[in-house]
């Protein structure tokens, strides 16, 4: 017997293991691990992944696989194994692990249908729903749901006359174009040409074309090249002179661009010293993790490029991860112009189809380099020679949904499997990484100088409290105002940076202090100027700004704080001559708009670029000589032990945008807490001191990298339920873990309610707890049933980055 072990697409604890299915005779030797199949599961048909093929099963009666969905495995052996690791590591379901590795086009989508089980039962159906089944046996669930007769349908399902069926929809849409090619060799074409009547001059011109270009061509192209109508081709096809085929083509978002080829630069001494141990580890096929620590502009990317070149020469493949927001065309260009068609690019701006096509190129081994954001770490290569993570400190490498993985951990795990090195690059490494590098767990490589010896920009820190005291109520300090004015006069460019879109633009009553909160979540609504609406960034609730305060009826209710829109308005007032480009989520949500705005700025179509953190990265324009940070502290007060680290990283990065070329750069940082070490040290671009200081604080307060964390969050509509469950979990953890582990909680989460669900949490701080994973799994198992019936949610994050 031939039995397939299948993980079914039913994310639940009970189904988080392989189920046995009989392989039908027609599919024996065809089905392989890593392919998707459709299998019966209870009353449904679901998609599943074959993980193994065996010859017998301990179960006597097996159901049979219904259908095979793939011709070749879509997950290779290594990725199947990686899924086991990911499942253990993040406590996710196996099916979620598979799905996160695949492009969205390959995720199953189900259509829900209602089916009449047997025509004989038709007369017994209640009259009101009979018309739905006059001519067909199945109807869409939606039609039933919208019929106003849903209860009748339900009754018939309960009676067994109707059946609910899930039908898997195959969403992959390969793009095909019609091609035309000669059906005969040259002599044949010549002969048939002679036979054509002289009046068929159009057909003759087509034959002549193929005599000089004997290759298939897109039908559309030959039509336009020869200015002929499709009937001409049709005639030739009917005569058997040409034939038509469909060919799969890729949707290539970069196809319209040409990339000038670049060749490797001669490395500086520092770069040569840094790259040497990496090349050595490639030669010896040895796994090792390198931290390439170097300020912005110190030539890290060139080191990546030459490392990849070496890997390609050895016949292997490479993955480069770049944070989503720095996956700018500039960044992509650098890889495409060095490696041309060898590069696939994966990022969230692509359509589902484009993503699938880029993924296919990797799977079909048509490219050997993948450049992409977080999920590109799962690129289906089979002979990896290097994995590079640029800006390794970026928190976007951590996925905040299941599976809650960190791309850095996945990179290291994959690189171990392939015995290849990993390069982590950053000007401001995460504390965890730097600590490991200092301990020698990672190999530290340093680039200390900026290319071309350009000096780092000079930084001024302005105390905004002082400004206020001296009567300046504007959001621009006098220093920043003067400098912007000066740049406008000199026709140089300024970048103004605001932390987080609309972070502090809430609506408040000036008389009583009432703040407009979301009715579903315990958090204030964010004001959006352009449509006069307030919006909740957690649940999407939207409403208009009240004309009077609901508390005290005062009319002095207005928005506070500084969103990008408000700054733009203010700029318009104080520098009416300045041309401003604003970049935030509102202005860049449409596809391609990000790039358009940046291009416009690069081409000098604006004097000031105003934006949120999305402008902190990747900008490298020669004419930027001033960077202003409007309020450095907005991030400092988030309830997150990494808030100082994030502030330092961001300020350092933003400052790095100025003066990267010939013109010297200046930076102005405005703050209400100028004495904070992360602001002072970012001003001095002194990572080493920041590291010392922050490590001390982490040590004292027991945070990573000295301790590991695990965060358990419980949410439910009833507050008492949430507290009760969190308390039980806390007790269970205390009883199972050693007394070295600290268990903090239960406490309300810092956003205590989201979408009408209360949220409580407990945090485990620990150094070494062999029982932890098993205990956390037990907690999930135990509450599984309840979560089905009551909507209780328990989420566990073994490496939390967002503590809210
Ligand atoms: P980073 O990635 O550290 O920000 P880059 O690799 O982008 O630094 O280098 C900064 C600039 O210096 C780029 O314009 C790059 O082309 C240039 N550069 C890098 N290495 C060299 C080199 N060895 N010789 C000349 N120019 C270089
Ligand atoms: Zn009021
Ligand atoms: Zn809300």
In CATH, the topology of the largest domain is named Rossmann fold
Structural class: alpha/beta
Distance between the termini: 52 Å
Bound molecules: adenosine-5'-diphosphate, zinc ion
Largest sheet: 7 strands, parallel
Question: CATH architecture of the largest domain, please?
Answer: 3-Layer(aba) Sandwich
| CATH domain class name of the largest domain | Alpha Beta
Mean model confidence by pLDDT: 86
Spatial extent as radius of gyration: 31 Å
The H-level CATH homologous superfamily of the largest domain, spelled out, is P-loop containing nucleotide triphosphate hydrolases
Widest sheet, order of strands: 14-15-13-16-17-12-18
- Put simply, the count of helices is 24
Q: How many strand segments? A: 33
